[in-house]
Structure formats: structure tokens, C-alpha cells
Design brief:
The chain is α+β, with helices and mostly antiparallel strands. The chain folds into two domains: 155 residues, Nuclear Transport Factor 2, Chain: A; 161 residues, Nuclear Transport Factor 2, Chain: A. It is built from eight helices and 14 strands.
């Protein structure tokens, strides 16, 4: 493959510096108008709600977030797992730890005066120095929970009208982040063909999802993860060691007993300071017919858009950060319940 051209991330040192520096420009310097230097004007942004929105919505949401959380909201970049896509493009899978104090009005209502903490993953396709497409995965339940807001009430409101696009987002769509099937994500995903490298790592991650998640071979977890595994999950949960890690997966699948997970994109990066990491965008499709994690079951189809960042050590997963939006899940379930 032809080397990545510096023009893809200029004037920064590398793609990681490009993403982290731009995040500071937007959220610390508050140079919201400079987003035009960073995003393509026809950018497509996909979320767990099936929303696809554009540059104007990015600006609008950012301004509202500034008003609600004057002392934060943008967060701290924990890692950027990036990988080349062509001579002048790359994928950036940016994991962010977000914090802030809710002192202003927001789409969810008046200020609560409380602090929030959550994680977000922005999976971006960058071409010719501009973000042209983005898949956004947020732990919105953690935000609402720490602010003392009712997630079920918010989900009901979203089922009727999104504050972003002004219409219902209650469906389980087959477009945007969920469109089509990926034949072999180790070769090509939603962001296009992968470079011919890190094949062994990609195959291992694909086998992990297929064996442990889809075939329910929880006994095979030690084949893929270190005995010292640590997993940072939604609602800021943290588990470590094999059995608690197995139970995190089992508990999610018990909610959607027929659930099958599909890898949508794989990104692999190695650096001297952070080692070898793999970023994955995935979709879990299932029926809310099992354990009533989100209230009475509805026997309705649910799509869960998620992202996992894996830190590898000696060919196995040493650490995982797993993010998915439970409010998007609740929105689908509440809509199905109200339709019954």
C-alpha cells in the first residue's frame, strides 16, 4: 500500500495528533465555527437511533452542549485507534471520557446542577483532511443517570420526537449505521477496504465475537482474553478477571436471547506508548424477549449499535472498553410497548 500522505492530517504530526488537537480547538477553545475546517460540509453522521444528520446539525448540537455544560462536555481523549484508508485518508476511532456540570438548559430540560461522566466513541472516516462520515456511539444512559434524569421518560420522548432531527427515532432501521451486511470485516467494512496488514489480529477478534457471543461458547473466553482481563463497560461499570467478564456478556445476551452480533468495521493500530489496539464497530440484533432488564418484555426487535476498543497483549485481549447507547435501546422498547 502507498504510504499515508502527510496532507491527510496536515498541519499536525500524525492522525492521532490531528484528532486530539481538533477536539481541543472545538471544546476547549470553543472555536465552533472552525468545524468547517475539520468536517466536510456534506458530512454524514450516524448514531444508534438510526439518525443520519449533516454539518448543520453538528453545529446546532455543539452549541446546545456548550450552553448546557459551560465547564465541559467535550471530554478528554483517552485513545485514538487509527488506520489508513487509501493514500490520503484514514479511520479514526476516538474514545473520549466526557465530564461536565449541567448548569444550563439542554435538550433534556432545565439545569440540574449535577455533574455527569460517560464515554463516547467517534468512528470517523477522514479523506483529504476532512471528516466525511462519522459513526457516533454514546453511553447516554450514564449521562442521564448521573444527572438524575429519568431515562425511561427521555426514551419515551425520543420515541415521539428527536431533539436533533425533529422526528421519531423509535425504529430499528436498516439504513445508516445498520445498512447492509458485511461479508468479511477483516477485509472490508462500512468504511471501505482495509489495508492488507494485521490479518491475524483481525481474525482473532472476529473469532472471539463468533465463538463467545454468537455461539454462546462462554467457556472459550480464556482462549481470547487474558486471565487479568479488565473491561470498562456502560454506566461506568468496571469488571476484571474471567468470570465477571463472562457475566457482562451473558447478562446482555440474556436480555436478547436470540441476539447475534455483527462486526461492521475493524481498525488496528500499534504505537510505542500504547501498544497494539483493535477498534471495532458492531451491531447486536435481537428480540427483547428474555430477562426484563428494561422493564416488561415486548418480544420486539431491537438493534444495538456498539463499539469496543481492545488492548492486546501476547495475542489475547488484555483490556476492553465497551460502549453502546442504552437510551437508544430503551427508545425502541418503549415505542414497541406503547404500540401494543
Amino acid at each position: 500500500m502507498e504510504p499515508l500522505q502527510p496532507s491527510a492530517y496536515a498541519p499536525y504530526r500524525n492522525p492521532r495528533d490531528y484528532i486530539l488537537s481538533w477536539t481541543d480547538v472545538i471544546w476547549i477553545d470553543r472555536a465552533i465555527g472552525r468545524l468547517a475546517d475539520h468536517y466536510s460540509t456534506d458530512v454524514k453522521v450516524h448514531t444508534a437511533y438510526g439518525e443520519t444528520y449533516d454539518y448543520d446539525f453538528v453545529i446546532s448540537n455543539s452549541v446546545q452542549k456548550f450552553a448546557a455544560f459551560p465547564n465541559g462536555g467535550g471530554g478528554h481523549g483517552e485513545d485514538v485507534v487509527w488506520e489508513q484508508r487509501g493514500p490520503n485518508g484514514f479511520i479514526s476511532c476516538h474514545r473520549v471520557l466526557k465530564t461536565g456540570t449541567h448548569t444550563g438548559f439542554w435538550t433534556y430540560g432545565p439545569p440540574t446542577g449535577r455533574d455527569f461522566i460517560s464515554r463516547t466513541v467517534a468512528h470517523c472516516l477522514v479523506q483529504d483532511n476532512r471528516i466525511v462520515e462519522e459513526w457516533l456511539v454514546r453511553d447516554e444512559f450514564a449521562v442521564l443517570e448521573t444527572l438524575g434524569l429519568d431515562p425511561y421518560k427521555v426514551a419515551g420522548e425520543l420515541a415521539r420526537r428527536s431533539p436533533v432531527i425533529g422526528k421519531s427515532v423509535a425504529g430499528a432501521p436498516e439504513d445508516g449505521a445498520f445498512a447492509g451486511r458485511i461479508a468479511d470485516p477483516t477485509l472490508s467494512g462500512i468504511t471501505g477496504p482495509r489495508p492488507p496488514r494485521w490479518r491475524e489480529e483481525c481474525e482473532m477478534i472476529r473469532a472471539y465475537f463468533e465463538d463467545v457471543w454468537n455461539r454462546r461458547r462462554f467457556d472459550l473466553v480464556p482462549r481470547y482474553v487474558s486471565e487479568r482481563i479488565v473491561c470498562h463497560g456502560v454506566r461506568m461499570r468496571r469488571v476484571q478477571n474471567i468470570t465477571p467478564y463472562q457475566m457482562e456478556i451473558i447478562n446482555l445476551l440474556a436480555t436478547f436471547p436470540d441476539g447475534q452480533i455483527e462486526i461492521r468495521d475493524i481498525v488496528v493500530n500499534e504505537s510505542e506508548d500504547l501498544g497494539r489496539r483493535v477498534a471495532v464497530i458492531w451491531v447486536l440484533r435481537g428480540t427483547y424477549s428474555g430477562v426484563p432488564t428494561y422493564g416488561p418484555v415486548t418480544d420486539s426487535k431491537v438493534h444495538v449499535l456498539g463499539s469496543s476498543h481492545f488492548e492486546l497483549e501476547d495475542g489475547r485481549i488484555r483490556r476492553e472498553w465497551r460502549v453502546y447507547d442504552e437510551i437508544a435501546v430503551l427508545t425502541q422498547i418503549v415505542a414497541a410497548r406503547e404500540a401494543i
